[in-house]
Amino acid sequence: EILISDGRYYINALLGNGFTEPILTNGETYKASPYGPRWLWTFAGMIYDEAKGRFLGINRNMVAHRLPEANGRLFDWNNMHGSLLYMEVGFKNYDYALIEDWNTHKKTLYVLNFDKKKDFDVAMYPADDCPELDKALCYAIGMRGNVFFYATGKNIYLYDYAGTNTGKKVYTLASESEKITGMKILKPCVDRFIKNHPYNNKVLVFSTYDEIRKEGKVYMYYFNESNGALDISSERIFGGFGKILDMEYNFAKYGS
Fold it and tell me: How many alpha carbons lie under 13 Å from residue 171 in its C-beta half-sphere?
């Protein structure tokens, strides 16, 4: 279990007795991003340090440390020089990180493989041709294809990073008073307890809030897991909520 609060990073190891904050080597400090890699085998955890724009590995002794040098690689994971806007496990179980450069404010999608002990870079895509990306409030990344959704308050876009490297609008809310407040792809198969699920990585779920009606809603659409094409005819809408803060899949044994 990982808890990130006010720039601090805490780990509760499997069968642990509570949350522990890793010690950073050489007396350094860090400011942990609320996002980070999740699919880890070679590290106990991983911090994206917003203070210095770098990834920090955490070993089994709960010591945070600098990663191996990135000489001759596509990018330097020890000096990303930007803010981490979002990060999620995606296609091929790689980690996908959208980072905004501190100086130019240009956004780049970085693909990393932290299952390795070094040479973590896989690919990088300058996100220069993505409409309204500066206004994006939430993101969702698919694991069964090169699928990347981002949403503003009104519109949802599909970023074809591995193809045309452009973003296109795929959905717009009809109601002027309704705003998108959250978005996720249904991903129930994230551990050994749920190995298969008929809707795994096939449903886009997003929440909205209507300021006039004071009502929250949840929308669900099937999408093509390979290319992200939305099936508008599959629409399901659930209303009657307050303002929705978050959404998550609940294992069927405990409800749905």
Answer: 29
Span 207-233, pLDDT tens digits? 999 999 999 999 999 999 999 999 999
Contact between 140 and 185 (Cβ < 8 Å): yes
Q: Do the Cβ atoms of 123 and 140 come closer than 8 Å?
A: no
Beta-bridged to residue 63, according to DSSP, are: 23
- If DSSP codes are grouped into helix, strand and coil, which group holds residue 179? strand
**Start-end of H helices in the chain:** none
Tokens, residue 55: 């990834």
CA atoms within 13 A on the CB side of 186: 22
Tell me which residue has tokens 């959404």.
247
Angle at 127 between CA 152 and CA 8, to 5 degrees: 70
Distance CA 141, CA 204 (A): 10
Q: Comparing 33-47, 91-105, 226-240, which segment has the lowest mean pLDDT?
A: 33-47
